[in-house]
Design brief:
Blueprint (H helix, E strand, L loop, with lengths): L8 H8 L3 H11 L39
Helix pairs in contact: 1-2
């Protein structure tokens, strides 16, 4: 555990050749459980407000397929 402090219970179970459930329980009891990364949403880029003063002033395209023959 000291050589590889970021190993989780699954990796330790593979290295030690043991069942992963007892290893997970031991890590939780001793407080050595490696914390998971948060799986929350990533912040989106904030779009600027699009303001036009006349009709046909703003155009946009969406390319979904580009042929590269």
């Amino acid at each position: 555990m000291q050589r590889f402090p970021t190993y989780g219970y699954r990796r330790l179970a593979i290295v030690l050749g043991e069942n992963k459930k007892p290893i997970q329980r031991i890590l939780q009891i001793t407080g050595w459980q490696v914390r998971k990364r948060s799986q929350g949403f990533r912040p989106r880029a904030k779009a600027l407000p699009s303001v036009t003063h006349q009709p046909d002033e703003r155009w946009a395209t969406d390319i979904c397929h580009v042929w590269c023959g």
